[in-house]
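ZC12D ribonuclease
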Amino acid sequence: VHQSKLDFFCKLGYGKQDICKVLENLGQEALEDDVLKELIRMGSKPQALESQAQPSPLKLVARGSCSTSPGSKWLGEDESDSSDYLRAIVIDGSNVAMSHGNKEVFSCWGIQLAVDWFRERGHTYIKVFVPLWRKEPPRQDSPIADQHILEELEKQSILVYTPSRKVKGKRVVCYDDRYIVKVAYEKDGVIVSNDHYRDLQNENPEWKWFIEQRLLMYSFVSNRFMPPDDPLGRHGPTLHNFLSKKPVLPEPKWQPCPYGKKCTYGNKCKFYHPERPHQAQLSVADELRAKIKVPLSLEKEEEQ
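Structure:
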């Protein structure tokens, strides 16, 4: 009898120690209702209720599940997930390194400065292309500075060596520019270089448009990597929109009228007048056309 009652209340979720205490106080032949009342009086709770009272730990939830609340976040996912809104970055390593070395030294530190700049912005896909022969010891005609940086970037899966080999003592080098443009085009990303790739533009019309629209030029100012704030010119997108997959359009701003309150154009004036904010920015002819269309549409509805 004792074992059967113990099993019964254990299935309900009560602890064995609490059940044994109640059975000792009430006796082995106590009714189940009396035992249950005594357990409740003692303040004992089933384990299921206790687990509900305690804050549940963060659980992994499958994407697309309807059970998650709208405000909940995926485990390990930040609000600013760069892969969602930032473009892939493909860096012309030779161009950046030679630019930082004043076209005399292949400065690997310049590549590191460019990579760090894009990392700080939150870009996760960053690839640097450098010819394989740059791993060789430096020579007098091609000096290299801070060559260990290339090894570190290769370990981080950021730097990629384009293939090259020697045939009868002569070095055969693959065209690294084609790698750069092809990867950037496939990833719908941005090319970081001061080269215009005119030969590749003539090869492929799609590459021509892509190079014209996605080439990010730069400068080095006192060991500081500085791309322009207007990569496509004064009337083009900002640097933030240029590097974003979903650019944020600026709010339209009305240019104030140079004549101010002395303006005699009235509604025909194409400029903004702060002294008359509720006035429609339409010409007189456009207002008359709008007034004529309204009664005509009403007449058609009545005929139908």
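Residues 1 and 28 are 7 Å apart (CA to CA).
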